[in-house]
Specification:
Uridine Diphospho-n-acetylenolpyruvylglucosamine Reductase, domain 3; 19 strands; about 35% helix; eight-stranded antiparallel beta sheet; five-stranded antiparallel beta sheet; 4 domains; Oxid_FAD_bind_N (chains A, B); homodimer; about 550 residues; FAD-bd_PCMH_sub1 (chains A, B)
Chain lengths: ~550, ~550
């Protein structure tokens, strides 16, 4: 086992770095079930025998070009023990976890990696690092959990010779708890589980559970407008942000004096979603709530996706949303993809919906009764607790399944968008067609599955999983499909991303998203805060 | 009666211009009740005899300096019939409705007014006007209902010789309704009642009812981050904004492709609250809902403000908020200020809270039962429907009462802030002390009353009404108090404004609100979109 910076750290609970070539930690990796292997043979003619993975010590990296002078300058800020140019640290900061990222890691040519990884202790050190890097022309990639699936942490140098990863894991404290107001201030480097652990000691919970929960960080959630599985109850991460501290090459920002304000534009909303291009979020004051007394689970079946979507819409528009509210389409339901233990097992018909209700016993009782009446009236059949508990049990497992599929020569990727309720069926059809057409045209027919996992009074998200047989160059294979589907989303009126963020991968569609003048506004803000342009080059801004 | 542009307009329902020297329309004006006059004699030694008001035809204005060339240039865009330099139109666009505004109108010296008022028909004309004004150095004050109480529509010239008011009343159509998604696109110039009327024809409602509802405009609500009395149920106006169109001297913006997105910073939030300094909002797509089947009213009494505030907090943090949720403090309750028909009548003890519940019958039944249980457990005593209906009946009347008080020599003004629940009592005490000290030191002891009218999981707004005897120079008298209270709000951790906006009056505290770097960000955006600086000079930005 190669020793990494994180494992040497003296902090109480160390965030585990994810393995270099796949999702998560080794303990999460599992071979494909017999059910899934059978399905792969049947559908794609794939044997299901995995290829061997390389040891990370064997991976050649392009050598670090960090100069001695710059090393000294950075060490002056963070201390020698908090800067690493070791290949193992560089490799673990070499990018995120999109399917193209993981496929790229499997290539045998030398890999791109940051020239150094620095681990600042606090806001002041982040500020000092940014000033140093702006002055000396060093590109800075902020790094939280490294879970980006859109190229958001790619070590892009831009116009600069040198690029460093600025790893925020040492900003890992709960600095303030206000149980009366239901808020807590959390360091940007805290992972989801560690944040919940620290809050739990105060009887509190954040309730933000995206699929990346186990590894992603508070700062990353804010910088990418993350949305968790309990968004119907607790809101998107951006809804939870009460206040945030940002370090920029030009100084600090402390935004959010009140739960709501009419004092001009909401500048928090400029930094939430800024993906490290305008500044680095160092701490976030978030809305939290008491650890729920009760959680009720209820699964539902709908005859088809349109009926199920209308039922979800009715719930949300009535103001009767549960804590978790999801609906799988016929394809996803048929493969049991929402229930990790049963994926590929006995086919199920119709569309599965999951609801959970959290809070006080009285609140849960009132809400679940109201929702049950509405969902029944809308054509739903209650399936009881079991499928909902199965979903909850396996809800962070899907990325591990993707790794196992990639290992056996299956291409597997996800993408997501959102639109109005009125446009939902159209957008779903257009995205599905773009994926099946673009992959089918390459001789690799695709399975496309979809679910709604985030609902709003005016619309919902659509989350797609696509599976096909890999070609010899699966990166090029996927690039064709991704381009087709991005164009299709824009043409059909969807947003290019509902919660994965823009990163490098969605940049081609940013001008369509906010318009040319919107892009000029973003650039004007960047010029003011990062005139040298060192902050996360090649991300977000077209 | 002087004929004004609005009364000549051919549009179906014409928004009535407010009278020049007071709130609202003549029909709303009422003499003080015997109860109130008795109270004024008792507390302030004031007789209660009103001074006579001037006719607007008798008011001297500084002459218009619009050149013939500029008149021709503007007329080229809007047509001769939609540009006015008539004194009556200029006077009605000479400012907003703060107490200092109204006191200033009573002065006999010539009044400041815009040099012309233009009435563009649509987005394209607004865009063309902005381009013309940017090119020719004419300051532009966007004008909706003219209800600003913070100097937001003052005809400030800045560095320019000429200033025009750009009145948006002709942008008065409902251009799109999507009942499935629950959204509607409304012209910026629609007043609250006209918007509700147009939506009502589709069985829909916006549910935005600030005190300015009867006269304020959709564009103004967005540009100032308005918050209505039903904000607990339907959200602040900024929460309702799904999409918005903005005209700037540099072109147009169309922001908001989806109900939620992770495609970078939320640029909508830069224009919502921008108060006409970055662009002019010409239409807004808003979340709407079916006209409620049922409205339930329930008033409550709490022994004191702290108990009542804790009860409201419990409701909101449980996720059981009603549609309307308000709490008057002991002083406001004692004067019956929440019940317009009874103001100054038989004193009432404790603190009055108002709840209403809107929606389907089943939803209202479920929600009101949950709220009733929580409020009772938190120490509330149900008072039945009557006081809540009384509040609802008179809820737009308070500004008329202020006019009647000003007429008899009483200084009356309101101000508002917001903070966390934990800091609420502290902020309330500090604001009250600042007002009573600053006015008391001038020999005019003040009555200060307060209510909570907007609640959030992490905190609430505080809305203050202050009443004192006028001195000879009541504008200077109030300026001392306003400065003291602004400083006190900032020192006590509140926001300088929760829903009145910044305008000219809160500018001194903007740097404290967003920091120097935050101000630089706002200026950078303004430089990009309005390089000539013609948009609403002297507002928002310090």
């Amino acid at each position: 086992m190669v020793e990494t910076h994180s494992e040497k750290s003296g902090s109480a609970t160390v965030a585990p770095s994810m393995v270099w070539d796949a999702w998560g930690v080794p303990a999460g990796h599992q071979p494909l079930s017999a059910q899934i292997r059978g399905l792969l043979t049947q559908v794609f003619g794939i044997s299901g025998e995995p290829v061997a993975r390389r040891d990370e010590g064997d991976v050649p990296l392009r050598p670090s070009v960090l100069t001695d002078a710059d090393r000294d300058g950075l060490v002056d800020v963070v201390g020698a023990e908090h800067l690493s140019t070791a290949d193992v640290d560089r490799l673990r900061h070499a990018g995120g976890k999109s399917t193209p990222d993981l496929l790229r890691r499997r290539e045998t040519a030398p890999q791109d990696a940051p020239d150094a990884v620095v681990f600042p202790a606090d806001h002041a050190e982040v500020l000092a690092l940014l000033r140093y890097c702006a002055e000396h022309g060093i590109a800075v990639v902020p790094f939280g959990g490294g879970t980006s699936v859109v190229g958001g942490v790619d070590p892009v140098r831009g116009q600069f010779a040198t690029v460093i990863a600025l790893d925020l894991r040492r900003l890992d404290t709960l600095t303030e708890v206000d149980p009366v107001s239901g808020t807590a201030t959390l360091g940007a480097g805290l992972t989801g589980p560690r944040a919940e652990e620290l809050l739990g000691a105060h009887g509190l919970s954040l309730g933000h559970f995206p699929q990346s929960f186990e590894f992603a960080s508070i700062g990353g959630f804010a910088a990418t407008r993350s949305s968790g599985q309990a968004s119907a109850g607790y809101g998107r991460f951006d809804d939870m942000v009460v206040r945030l501290a940002v370090a920029t090459p030009q100084g600090s920002l402390d935004l959010g004096r009140a739960p709501a304000s009419a004092a001009g534009p909401d500048l928090r909303e400029l930094f939430v979603g800024s993906e490290g291009t305008l500044g680095i979020i160092t701490s976030v004051t978030l809305r939290v709530h008491p650890v729920p007394d009760t959680t009720a689970y209820q699964a539902w079946s709908f005859p088809d996706f349109a009926t199920g979507a209308a039922a979800l819409r009715g719930l949300v528009q009535t103001g009767a949303a549960p804590t978790v509210l999801r609906l799988s389409d016929e394809a996803e339901t048929g493969l049991n993809l929402a229930r990790s233990g049963d994926v590929g097992g006995h086919p199920v018909s119709g569309c599965l919906a999951i609801t959970t209700f959290e809070g006080t016993a009285a609140h849960v009782a009132a809400r679940s009764a109201e929702a049950e009446a509405l969902l029944t009236a809308a054509g739903g059949t209650a399936l009881g607790e079991a499928p909902a508990r199965q979903w909850a049990h396996g809800r962070f497992a899907a990325p591990y399944l993707r790794d196992a599929l990639l290992d056996v020569g299956v291409l597997c990727e996800t993408l997501e968008t959102a639109t109005s309720w009125a446009n939902l069926a159209n957008l779903k059809a257009k995205v599905t067609a773009a994926l099946t057409d673009a992959l089918g045209a390459q001789g690799t027919p695709a399975l496309v599955m979809c679910h709604i996992s985030h609902t709003y009074p005016s619309g919902a998200s659509l989350y797609f999983t696509v599976v096909a047989k890999q070609l010899d160059d699966p990166i090029a294979q996927w690039r064709l499909a991704k381009t087709a589907v991005g164009d299709a989303i824009v043409a059909a009126g969807g947003t290019i991303t509902h919660h994965h963020a823009v990163g490098a991968d969605h940049r081609p569609w940013m001008a369509a998203e906010v318009g040319d003048l919107g892009v000029r506004v973003l650039r004007a803000v960047k010029r003011e805060l990062d005139p040298a342009g060192v902050l996360n080059p090649g991300k977000l801004m077209p």
